[in-house]
Amino acid sequence: MTDIANQTEANVLPNAHTSATPPDLQVVNMAKHFGSLIALDNVSLHLKPGTFHALLGENGAGKSTLVKCIMGFYRADHGDVLINQQARTIDSPRDAHQYGIGMVYQHFTSVPAMTVAENLVLSRFESPNLIKWKEELEALNAFMADAPFKVPVEALVGQLAAGEKQKLEILKQLYLQSRILILDEPTSVLTPGEADEVLGLIREQVTDGKLSVLLISHKFREVTSFCDEITVLRKGKYAGTGAVKDLSVAQMAEMMMGEKREPQPVEKTPRTEAVPILQVEHLQANKDNGVPALHGLNLTVNKGEIVGIAGISGNGQRELVEVLAGQRPATGGQILVNGTPYTATRKEINQHCVFVLPEEPLKNACVAHMSVADNLALRTFDRPPQAKSFMLSFKAIRAAAANLIGTFKIKTPSPETPVGNLSGGNVQRTVLARELSSNHINLLIAANPCFGLDFAMVDYIHCQILNARNQGVAVLLVSEDLDELLKLSDRLLVISGGHFTYESEIETADFSAIGHAMCHSVH
């Protein structure tokens, strides 16, 4: 950059914080590739000064990649970020801060063992070597007096409730004098009441012309209540924009999901009678922060049937799968497998032949530092021939692993290689091999089993799931990929806000009704 350009930028920077209105922000034809994966494909967005703008899209649509390019975490392959109609180079969050742009992340970034005051001072990009606490506290109390919400500056962050912690994350950006706030799922840890309070107070700042906000959210209620405009991404591409007042929720959902799609014909063995294998009755469970996630769900999956559950991320799918897998306690209701109460203990899992393909298999289904062979044995190590008189037979474990590696074509240097060293597709093959190699599978629970995998691997997993179904296995398939659900399911349900809001046989599924049900929870 030339000296003149540097001087010009230096002159512009203070205005980002001190001008009467927030700066105008435009993204023009931005593209970002990760190897062969096209995360962003010539995407444009315009955040007008003093507006509340929602960025919408299904999981994997490119939303996080776009905002990380704006913030300087990623360098785009091409495209421009314009601040007040001038192209600017943003290589780091520090650069973004110079133009008045700050981001509030999905996860808390404050230090729990420090006070609110210490965290706020620590957040400054130019912290003083010697902190004069008397002056700092006076300034912080004055800042807090004018802030849209209050958090006690002397309190330890670790002792704050989730709502107060999220308020602190936003206050941090206001303290840094950010005029453009990028909010990434800011209400995911909040109750609906807390969410309305936080977004309502930010909305007042926007209405007063003090802030512009770019909100990533999956909650249409928040979009319709607080936002002025939306931009929609779909599979890395720009899918449209519009004023919230001119769009219905169904139209927004259709922009996110794309044109109407029909079920894809696949070879399925005809089912005869309905034999219930999994029955979920009035199931309730909480999120990690104690807020209710599931509100009395009822569900039946029959022998030789794939029941698909569709929904936008964060509507209770994860909690449902974790309860069924024994990773999260239910707070009400019951689960029956083969008509017997089921709590997902190891004994019950083996007795009822329940198998799980969880989301993020390296985190939820494998021990990364253990070998491929040991991970393949996690279900069988305590039963003959791999266990004899309380002793493990490593020879039998290795022999079983070699057989599964060959059958499921797991690409690994050796059975002794740590499973964490494998590619994502081969980690998933390892889990498939372990979960689908039994001759006695009764119930299969699969959660986003193909997320992030290439086409060949997706086809392979789909074939394995269909084969299990055709052999009489009851399959519960939870996925955020509607094409996958339309292809594989016999019956489809939609989950929204922890309720089932739609159910249909796949042949009679109504695409517009599915989109509408994804956006409306039962109250």
Walk me through the structure.
With 523 residues, the protein is an alpha/beta fold. It folds into three domains: 22-108 and 178-257, P-loop containing nucleotide triphosphate hydrolases (Rossmann fold, 3-Layer(aba) Sandwich); 260-353 and 443-452 and 474-523, P-loop containing nucleotide triphosphate hydrolases (Rossmann fold); 359-437, no CATH class. Helix content is 34%, strand content 24%. It has helices spanning 3-18, 63-71, 93-98, 116-122, 133-146, 162-175, 192-207, 220-226, 249-257, 317-324, 346-352, 361-364, 372-376, 394-407, 424-436, 455-470, 482-488, 511-518; strands at residues 25-34, 37-47, 52-56, 78-83, 86-88, 101-104, 180-184, 212-216, 229-234, 237-243, 276-286, 292-302, 306-310, 332-337, 340-341, 354-357, 387-388, 391-392, 443-447, 474-478, 491-496, 499-505.
Key terms:
globular; Rossmann fold; 6-stranded mixed β-sheet; 523 residues; alpha/beta; 18 helices
In helices, the fraction of residues equals 25-40%
The CA-CA distance between the termini, in Å, is: 56 Å
Average of per-residue pLDDT values: 86
Compute the number of helices.
18
Indicate the CATH architecture of the largest domain: 3-Layer(aba) Sandwich
Any idea what the shape is? globular
Question: How many domain units?
Answer: 3
Strand residue percentage: 15-25%
Q: Which class of secondary structure composition applies to the elements? A: alpha/beta
CATH topology of the largest domain: Rossmann fold
- Widest beta sheet: strand line-up: 6-7-8-3-9-10
Condensed summary:
The protein contains 18 helices and 22 strands. The protein has 523 residues and is α/β, with parallel strands linked by helices.
